[in-house]
């Protein structure tokens, strides 16, 4: 893989950096700002368990569906234009969510916002690849950290705002950040009018299909999926698991879930740099596997002995998420390869991850025990072992295609 000599971060790229940061913040704040105010919403109109369940399932489902569509949309519009459209749609969904009059309109507005987020998830790695090929690790650290911050910040703010001025304002408030994220990309298009048109003309419509035949793409998909399964399963069931098997109170279980989520912040700060500068991919896969298996084993065999430690270890395991994000930029040589790889990994990964929280719940209902679901999660972690060996090889999807199929360009 060829390397690009680093140049000053801000020189000619300040707009792009600002756009990436605001874009990343908007993606997670849209997701994390709803659930804390559900009880406020129910004071105005009833929300059936079905609607609440669909709202909980909507993020990974929308991420999967619209992640698949993103490469096609990007070929038509270009990265910058599609980023602007995604944020406009997200802002519309967030404002509409604040105007909801019943459970159905709330669900539809939420799905609209999450559809835009699904597009944005896929766009971030190619945007970093395009504007910061020499600083992929640093820029991935910046935007993945911003995503982590915007995951735990809205729940802290949403309830006080809802108490002060109502849940509608609390939900619509986050549209401000989506609208702000449009400004740098609009300015960037004004500065470089013809550049992305040329890039569009050179796009190959068959590139996404090639990912199905490239082992490296499957390895990154597997790592991303393991991370997603652990995260979504924990957010869905970890509090109940801890109450049932560790004997903690519901308040303590909520605090421990926050501890689990907080482990994503140091991971987002450190992992991209460790990968980009020190090529620590294999070591980080090993850390994820060991901590994940140890945390699960602790919950299985000694849940009350050191509950906080098992939660911390389990929270470290999803470091595969920022690890995969930085590899999406590093393991693609071309613009079209980066877009296709990001769409392939994230759309399919989110689709698989969406099934597991429901499946684990069904397994628990059938067995009356959390032992089976925890063993399933341990097996999921084990799938990361062969994945780590493939993903750690310093080559690109284009290299693999050329070795197996011939020239990359059609």
TrEMBL record:
One of its GO terms (molecular function) is transmembrane transporter activity. Signal peptide: none annotated. Residues 14-396 form the Major facilitator superfamily (MFS) profile domain. Its main location: membrane. It is found in: Cell membrane. GO terms for cellular component: plasma membrane. It is a multi-pass membrane protein. Keywords: Membrane, Transmembrane, Transmembrane helix. Pfam families: MFS_1. The chain crosses the membrane at residues 50-70, 82-100, 106-124, 136-157, 169-187, 216-235, 255-276, 283-302, 308-330, 337-364, 370-391. The keyword Acetylation does not apply. InterPro entries: MFS, MFS_Cyanate_Porter, MFS_dom, MFS_trans_sf. This is MFS transporter. It comes from Microbacterium ulmi.
């Amino acid at each position: 893989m060829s390397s690009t000599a680093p140049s000053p971060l801000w020189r000619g790229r300040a707009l792009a950096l600002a756009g990436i940061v605001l874009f990343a913040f908007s993606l997670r704040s849209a997701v994390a700002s709803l659930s804390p105010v559900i009880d406020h919403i129910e004071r105005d109109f009833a929300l059936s368990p079905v609607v609440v369940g669909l709202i909980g399932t909507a993020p990974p489902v929308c991420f999967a569906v619209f992640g698949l569509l993103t490469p096609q949309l990007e070929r038509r519009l270009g990265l910058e234009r599609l980023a602007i459209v995604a944020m406009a749609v997200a802002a519309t969904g967030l404002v509409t969510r604040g105007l909801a009059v019943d459970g159905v309109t709330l669900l539809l507005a939420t799905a609209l916002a999450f559809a835009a987020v699904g597009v944005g998830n896929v766009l971030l790695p190619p945007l970093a690849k395009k504007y910061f090929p020499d600083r992929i690790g640093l820029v991935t650290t910046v935007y993945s950290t911003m995503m982590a911050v915007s995951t735990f910040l809205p729940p802290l703010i949403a309830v006080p705002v809802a108490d002060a001025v109502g849940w509608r304002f609390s939900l619509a408030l986050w549209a401000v950040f989506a609208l702000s994220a449009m400004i740098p990309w609009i300015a960037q298009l004004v500065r470089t009018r013809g550049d992305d048109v040329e890039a569009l003309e050179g796009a190959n419509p068959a590139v996404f299909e090639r990912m199905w035949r490239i082992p490296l793409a499957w390895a990154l998909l597997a790592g991303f999926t393991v991370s997603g399964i652990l995260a979504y399963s924990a957010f869905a069931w970890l509090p109940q698991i801890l109450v049932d098997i560790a004997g903690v109170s519901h308040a303590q279980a909520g605090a421990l879930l926050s501890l689990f989520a907080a482990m994503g912040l140091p991971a987002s700060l450190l992992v991209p740099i460790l990968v980009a500068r020190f090529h620590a991919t294999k070591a980080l896969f090993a850390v994820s596997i060991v901590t994940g298996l140890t945390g699960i084993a602790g919950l299985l065999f000694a849940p009350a002995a050191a509950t906080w430690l098992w939660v911390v270890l389990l929270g470290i395991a999803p470091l595969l998420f920022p690890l995969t994000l930085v590899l999406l930029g590093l393991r693609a040589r071309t613009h079209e390869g980066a877009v296709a790889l990001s769409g392939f990994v994230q759309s399919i990964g989110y689709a698989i991850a969406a099934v597991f929280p429901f499946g684990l719940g069904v397994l628990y209902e059938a067995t009356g025990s959390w032992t089976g679901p925890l063993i399933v999660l341990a097996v999921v972690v084990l799938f990361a072992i062969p994945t780590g060996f493939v993903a750690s090889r310093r080559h690109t999807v284009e290299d693999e295609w050329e070795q197996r199929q011939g020239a990359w360009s059609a």
